Amino acid sequence: MKRILPLLVLLPVLGFTACASSAPTLYAPAHDGRYGYSERQIERDRFMIRFDAGSDTSVEAAQDLAFRRAAEFTLEQGADWFVVVRTDREGNDRNPVSVGTSASYSTGSRGFSSRGIGLGLRYDTSAGQKSVTLEILIRTGTVSDDANAYDARSILAHAR
What we know:
Layout: H1 4-19, E1 36-41, E2 46-53, H2 59-76, E3 81-91, E4 97-107, E5 113-123, E6 130-139, E7 149-151, H3 152-157
Antiparallel strand pairs: 1-2, 2-6, 3-6, 3-7, 4-5
């Protein structure tokens, strides 16, 4: 019985861990709070491009996908290149599920003693979620020498 009890305790933990993964991050428009890209116009030639990703995507990959969308969006608007005015990154790469254990032993008066084992499970619903927002200015013609200027076609040619 002592050998079976740890297995009975771990089965719900393993099942919960398997269910903890969220839907995969896809390169698609974001709908109904799902992962993906969105854009918003601020001024005539100034836009916000946002890419939201889950725990299956790194912050760097989310940024690459935001740049990909900025390049596509620039071409859709009839422009050739864009300047990144500001970049905001939010979120983290933490694992949403963590398991902790503890063990204790105590001795009291008159020879009484006790032993205990604890198992803790934490599920953080915001862990691993991330978003990258680019504020861009779209332009036509020859690409500027500015270090924050990007040729949309060149970005798409190298997109993953």
